[in-house]
Design a protein that fits this description.
It is a single chain. By secondary structure, this protein is mainly beta. About 5% of the residues have low confidence. The longest helix is centred in the first third of the chain and has 12 residues. The chain starts with a helix and ends with a strand.
Length: 238
C-alpha cells in the first residue's frame, strides 16, 4: 500500500521525538526571566582520575542584560578548607569585573581555589550572540578560541551540591542567575567520556518546563522540572 504524505510526516515526527519519554516534548531552548532554575543530580568532581566537564551552547540576547549560569556551588566547606567557585560556566556582568563597567564576560570557574577562574571578554561580538562553551580537564573552549586550563591550586574536590541550571548554590540556597538568555542542550562528561545529555523540554500534561537527562550508558531518562516561579519561555518544538 502506498504511503501517504501525511503518514510519512507522522512517522518522521515520531522518530524525532523518540529520545524523550511519552508525554514530553523537546524544544530548541528555554529562556529565563530571572526566576527559573532546575536542580540536577550531577555532583562535579576533580581527582586523580576524574574531571567533570561540560559542553554546550546558549544564546545571549543582549550584551548588557543577559545572564547565564550552569554551576554547582559558590561557597562550601570541606573539613578546614573553604571552597569557592568550584564548578560553573557563567555569562554576564560578573563579579570579577571592576565596579562601574559593563563588559559582557564569559566566566569559567573550577577547583577548590576561588582564584582558579578563566574569563573571556565578549564585548567584541554582535548580539544576539550564540555562545559555545566547553569546560574541559585541560582546556576551556569558547567563541574567542581555546585557552589552557590550569590545575586547581588547592587540590582535589567533590562538590557537596549538584549542578544547577539557571543558577548556582550559594550556601544551602540557590542564587538564580538567568535573564535574556536561551538555554540549549548541553552535555556532561567525565574527562572525555559522555555521561549524559540535558535536553530542554516541557511536560505536555501541564506544560511544566525543565530539562530531560538522557544517560549515555543505557539511554534512561529523568526529568528535572523548573523549581522557581513562573515557567521558562519555550522555543520552537524540535
Amino acid at each position: 500500500m502506498k504511503m501517504t504524505t501525511r503518514r510519512r510526516l507522522l512517522i518522521a515526527s515520531a522518530s524525532v521525538q523518540s529520545r524523550l519519554p511519552t508525554g514530553f516534548r523537546e524544544v530548541q531552548w528555554l529562556q529565563g526571566s530571572g526566576t527559573q532554575y532546575c536542580v540536577t543530580d550531577i555532583y562535579p568532581k576533580y581527582d586523580a582520575s576524574n574531571f567533570t566537564a561540560i559542553r554546550g551552547d546558549f544564546t545571549a540576547l543582549d550584551a548588557q542584560n543577559s545572564k547565564f549560569e550552569i554551576g554547582s556551588h559558590w561557597n562550601q566547606s570541606t573539613g578546614s578548607v573553604s571552597v569557592s567557585h568550584n564548578f560553573a560556566v557563567s555569562f554576564g556582568y560578573m563579579q570579577s569585573i571592576p565596579s562601574g563597567t559593563t563588559t559582557p564576560t564569559l566566566l569559567f570557574r573550577y577547583g577548590r581555589d576561588g582564584n582558579n577562574n578563566a574569563s573571556v571578554n565578549m564585548s567584541n561580538f554582535v548580539y544576539p550572540l550564540d555562545i559555545h562553551y566547553e569546560l574541559n580537564k585541560t582546556s576551556i573552549v569558547h567563541n574567542g578560541g581555546t585557552s589552557t586550563r590550569t590545575t586547581p591550586s588547592t587540590g582535589y574536590y567533590t562538590a557537596t551540591k549538584p549542578i544547577v541550571i539557571g543558577g548556582v548554590y550559594n550556601g544551602n540556597s540557590v542564587s538564580i542567575y538567568n535573564t535574556q538568555t536561551r538555554y540549549k542542550e548541553f552535555k556532561i562528561y567525565n574527562n572525555n567520556t559522555l555521561l549524559c545529555t540535558f535536553v530542554p523540554c516541557y511536560r505536555k500534561s501541564d506544560n511544566k518546563t525543565g530539562f530531560m537527562k538522557i544517560t549515555a550508558a543505557d539511554g534512561s531518562t529523568e526529568f528535572f522540572p523548573n523549581m522557581g516561579t513562573d515557567e521558562w519561555i519555550i522555543g520552537s518544538v524540535v
